Amino acid sequence: MSDPKFNVLTIGNAIVDIIANADDAFLAKEDITKAAMNLIDADRAEHLYGAMDDLAGGRLEASGGSAGNTAAGLASLGSSAAYFGKVADDHLGNVFREDIRKIGVTFDSTPLDGTPPTARSMIFVTPDGERSMNTYLGACVEFSPEDVIADTVAASQVTYFEGYLWDPPKAKEGIREAARIAHENGREVAMT
Questions:
Q1: CA distances (Å), 75 to each of 56, 81, 159, in order?
Q2: CB under 8 Å to 93, separation ≥6 — which residues?
Q3: What is the phi/psi pair of residue 190, to 5°?
Q4: Do residues 52 and 13 make contact, with C-beta atoms less than 8 angstroms apart?
Q5: What is the mean pLDDT of residues 122-135?
Q6: pTM for this structure?
Q7: How sure is the predictor about 54, in pLDDT bands with cuts at 50, 70 and 90?
């Protein structure tokens, strides 16, 4: 077994966090449940994304998701990190790729050509500090065994995946494939 190139490879839902300040009147107008996380569909995601244009201060777009944030945190602390996750070949997919790579995480996943679009979580922050999240999973649930880069898994000391991605059948197959490759190469696997 050779020395690992990466301390940690994380696998998870590639979600762009879109953050905007809003007041309670905006939440009521848009029928957003305050201080909750709601899963939404593509049409609702597009509507809320557009509604953010009218908010003072605009919106901040940044790569996110549990495993993505873990990889970014590890890289910011000096660890070598890689990430697998599915984004679409669209504006938010580009945001995700640029952000995660900028912090030093290796992200070589092939983007989805077509629909569904990149996952996003529209996060409305009210003056009292409460976060109201509206999440559309989109492309991230399309992760599959074809998205597993065997050389990256084999070169990672630990392959870490988020439990949120365990539900979609293709994603589960992909995670199992990554775990198989990790174990064949004497590496460790962790799950949240």
A1: 32, 6, 15
A2: 87, 111, 112, 117, 118, 139
A3: -135, 150
A4: no
A5: 97
A6: 0.92
A7: confident
